[in-house]
Amino acid sequence: xxxxxxxxxxxxxxxxxxxxxxxxxxxxxxxxxxxxxxxxxxxxxxxxxxxxxxxxxxxxxxxxxxxxxxxxxxxxxxxxxxxxxxxxxxxxxxxxxxxxxxxxxxxxxxxxxxxxxxxxxxxxxxxxxxxxxxxxxxxxxxxxxxxxxxxxxxxxxxxxxxxxxxxxxxxxxxxxxxxxxxxxxxxxxxxxxxxxxxxxxxxxxxxxxxxxxxxxxxxxxxxxxxxxxxxxxxxxxxxxxxxxxxxxxxxxxxxxxxxxxxxxxxxxxxxxxxxxxxxxxxxxxxxxxxxxxxxxxxxxxxxxxxxxxxxxxxxxxxxxxxxxxxxxxxxxxxxxxxxxxxxxxxxxxxxxxxxx
Amino acid sequence: xxxxxxxxxxxxxxxxxxxxxxxxxxxxxxxxxxxxxxxxxxxxxxxxxxxxxxxxxxxxxxxxxxxxxxxxxxxxxxxxxxxxxxxxxxxxxxxxxxxxxxxxxxxxxxxxxxxxxxxxxxxxxxxxxxxxxxxxxxxxxxxxxxxxxxxxxxxxxxxxxxxxxxxxxxxxxxxxxxxxxxxxxxxxxxxxxxxxxxxxxxxxxxxxxxxxxxxxxxxxxxxxxxxxxxxxxxxxxxxxxxxxxxxxxxxxxxxxxxxxxxxxxxxxxxxxxxxxxxxxxxxxxxxxxxxxxxxxxxxxxxxxxxxxxxxxxxxxxxxxxxxxxxxxxxxxxxxxxxxxxxxxxxxxxxxxxxxx
Lengths: 356, 356
Fold this sequence. Notes:
Chains A, B: Keywords: GTP-binding, Nucleotide-binding, Nucleotidyltransferase, Transferase. Two copies of one chain form a homodimer. Chain A contains eleven helices and 17 strands.
């Protein structure tokens, strides 16, 4: 059976402001030292498993040109534009509809475009194991990340350590972001994994579950699928897609369906959720700083400083994030990184779109 | 007797880096909301007492054009350029030599060009009182600032509260920058003033004391004076000035001479010694911030933020100094403002003159 992939690249994350902007979200930024963008790395990573022409990118119209310029090897017809954002279930369904025009059935990897993975070979091993499990029956497989600390910003997957299928464990349930107390308990039981949002299944399996748990959405997706390649394709897509409710695949199917399996992984996954991730990704110097660009640090420790051409001089600083761009500079206390969105909210309210 | 003034504007202060540069030191910057530079304010302040054509500016060649453009009303021949920096005694002597070509004797105010004074009328009253005392005998008068807190960064003047002459007190001695302990004692005795570096005397008085306490320098200054207006003026100045030792007027004369008086003042004097002064000069907002330019502050308190065109967004900050310029940005913990010179030292070592 052919292995295909749908890479989801419609996100508009604001947590990397001022480097990320409305017209340049995180997945199109390079945050690693190799200069490659997140989406380029995502594609490159799976090439040993999926042929370039079997990789599909789901995004929206505004980012179509970015995808084309950053991924010129992806066939143009594989760039799927959602007319409006409707969360992951409709997005994945759109991918399934297009892939279904090429293959009667196929394995389908579903991957976010803005995560980083340090150990590619381990990741590929996990994917191969997942493909094996997903190839049987109508199993839905998700990659779970073995937690290393009690993170409260992720959802968790509770698996049954006694119910295995190959390298996979049966999923008992998906749980929302926990409190710190609860996250600590999860960590101790060793029966919880972080929900990475990476899925593997056959087209036939996901269609079956869409039909069962999201029948209206499924029917609209089939209408869209039938119109692909016809003169009505665009019109039908816009009408049907907008009519679907905004539902995540987790909520719409994974939390309800049967035959859900997870492959635990420890492949250096990072969701790169905020500027703080830069400390994990890049090497810190002897003062604990991560410094890029034209920077002089005096008595400065544990800071993330991302310069551009302009000289940045820091004196006596601790635990700050400093990011310079052509038109804006951010200075943020590390533990307040979550409040960066208050800046973008302020910019929205004041109609200062040039900075968004 | 005519009242003249010598404004000393040769300083190359680095404490306002990155706004102050080698080719734009502090006295040529505007740090107040009125947009006037420090040297412009210094001239404006004394105009009720001194005619424009009797104001002399001592600076160096590099700043001659800055002086001319910022003070176009000052006669060009009143801009005196020191060939090399030799501290305040030779500088003041050069001023006295030039003023002596115009007036046989005159009162001479000696003023730094980079201090701020909030209450001009009180300052003028103090100067008038000082002129009266300086007009008698060969008295040397200095303006002392009534200390408001135990500052350790200034020299102090010990006066005799029982020996008065008009509004002035006899000076017992000048003392170096004290420790905090000692500064606290000074404050309690109420017999110490801050040494402001502002002096008032007659030409004849300062010449007499130069002759007595700095005879070699005095003789070289007289050689310079004799050459003024001759074709050899430039050559003589360069030769004689370079040959003088580098000595401050405090050390060379004030600490040794007799008939030293001080007028205590409380006219809102500020030596604007570092970026921290901006908090004293400008209004802080309800969060304790002093903000200029294109700035968004989120949960930011007691910060000094001096922007230019670029948007500065601050999140979760406390007690920082942030200064943006066209080619460099400084982020400095307030209590480490003294370490800003470590940045400029680093730039010097690395030959990055473009930032100095």
